[in-house]
Description:
By secondary structure, this protein is an alpha+beta fold.
Amino acid sequence: MFKLIKKIPLNYDGICFFNNEYLLLKDDIIAFYDIDFNKVKEITLSKDFKFITAIKDTIFLANDKEIYKFDFNNLIKLDIDIDLNIVNINNINDILIIITEDKIYSYDKELKKYLNIKCSNIFNIDNKNYFIKKNDLYDNKKIQSFDFDIKDCCYNKCLILLSDSIYIYNIDCYAKITKLLKCLCKEDNIPSSIACIEKALANILNEEANKIKKAIYLSNNICDLIKINDSVNQTIKNVILLEQVLCTKLDIYNNYNNKK
């Protein structure tokens, strides 16, 4: 589901995406990087933190027990009246999510238990929650393992996994498209179903074009670009095969109606 595009040798404790820049946290320093991971600037804080996330124009920072809002001028401690053993922080739908050792809380003016689950991070893609436990990725079940422990992640146009380096992964759209095709194939009206599948195939080709653009934008490794090109080429071949099936299906339908 998640395919490696690029690996960047940077060692930081936490990462988030904020105003088209990546913010990398290490102790009392927030380093700002552009989309190509060129360093832009640094900010030194008044204390050390382990975790970082951003919601709209506000940055949130946390250590094991405390969470602060940071507006580039002041650190403001959130008023939380229970003892927390914080494992990470993130945001889902512009709500601060606090991951503890055995529970997940949402913080929207007040603390509310969100989920009863042990994990090191939680994030949302296309309104679906994903969980990280060490080097495994879950939705309702384990869907992928990585060969390193995952410290953190953030999502903009790709998934970023942080250990000794930053690993940039793209989001594979095929599961979503496959599900769409299965639904469309249930359509009783054959011409309508063919038209709907053609629309879905157009979406697939558009996603493949975006994949190539993204790969060119993010990668400076010719081997990575060749792999992406081979993947896109295989997808196009599969689309051509399906087009032939659809053409045969339409011919059979037309011949049947002509004989009626």
